[in-house]
Specification:
CATH superfamily of the largest domain: Response regulator
Number of helices: 8
CATH architecture of the largest domain: 3-Layer(aba) Sandwich
Strand content: 15-25%
Structural class: alpha/beta
Radius of gyration: 18 Å
Order of helices and strands: EHEHEHEHEHEEEEHHHEE
Largest sheet: 5 strands, parallel
């Protein structure tokens, strides 16, 4: 794991201190601030690979801050820190571009695993943007009908149209494209794409699939990623002719 800077935005100082301790044990540089305003000042001065963001911040809330971060720093990963009862906030946050969320209270190992996963996605994205080979893939291209995935440039084309995907959306699409017509449950996708073996985070999969579908269907109305009710999702290659 490259030495990345992490920003924790948490108004509860004790929780912020606990998270900082858990992440510095991974040899990461961690800063902690207690408000969105202080976070914006930090972000303007430093380059952060990942921001852990509490939704319930004073003054400017975490969802508004998430939107600002993704507008100006799209390659910075964001993990939302949420309460167990805030389902709607989690969905809205993911739709605003957050890469993941974690519910309070959480175990140190779960937090560390999620941080490692997001930093790995970011490292793959940055490596491809620098025209390096992806650290997880020796392939150069993957084609399924009119869908063309180029690993060295981290680009996806649907026909002649380039798609602007986040690192997680890219990895999700690659996994589907490698297994066309195979139906995967949400839990299987969490395990294989996100690397999580924890249940209860299906909103992460739902929201990323919704965003990926929206980007694909801007250029092709026929559904490429289909829902198999009661089972999961699959990529339908017959829609890519």
């Amino acid at each position: 794991m490259r030495h990345e800077k992490i920003l924790v935005v948490e108004d509860d100082r004790e929780i912020g201190k606990l998270i900082t301790t858990q992440l510095t044990s991974l040899n990461l540089h961690v800063d902690h601030v207690v408000s969105a305003e202080l976070a914006l000042k930090k972000i303007a001065k430093h380059s952060y690979g990942l921001i852990l963001l509490d939704i319930n911040l004073p003054l400017m809330d975490g969802l508004s801050l998430c939107r600002k971060i993704k507008e100006h720093y799209p390659t910075t990963s964001v993990i939302l820190l949420t309460a167990l009862s805030s389902d709607m906030d989690r969905v809205i946050g993911l739709e605003m571009g957050a890469d993941d969320y974690i519910c309070k209270p959480f175990f140190a190992r779960e937090l560390q695993a999620r941080v490692k996963t997001q930093l790995r996605h970011r490292a793959q994205l940055l490596a491809s943007q620098n025209n390096d080979n992806s650290p997880v893939d020796s392939e150069q291209k993957l084609n399924v009908g009119s869908l063309n995935i180029e690993f060295s440039s981290h680009q996806v084309y649907l026909g002649k149209q380039a798609l602007n995907l986040t690192a997680t959306e890219f990895d999700l699409l690659v996994y589907f494209a490698r297994h066309p017509n195979h139906v995967f449950s949400r839990q299987q996708l969490l395990d294989k794409v996100w690397g999580y073996q924890h249940s209860g985070y299906e909103h992460t999969v739902n929201s990323h699939i919704n965003r990926l579908r929206a980007k694909l269907e801007e250029h092709q109305q026929a559904p490429i990623i289909e829902t198999v009710w009661g089972v999961g999702y699959k990529l339908n290659p017959s829609q890519l002719n």
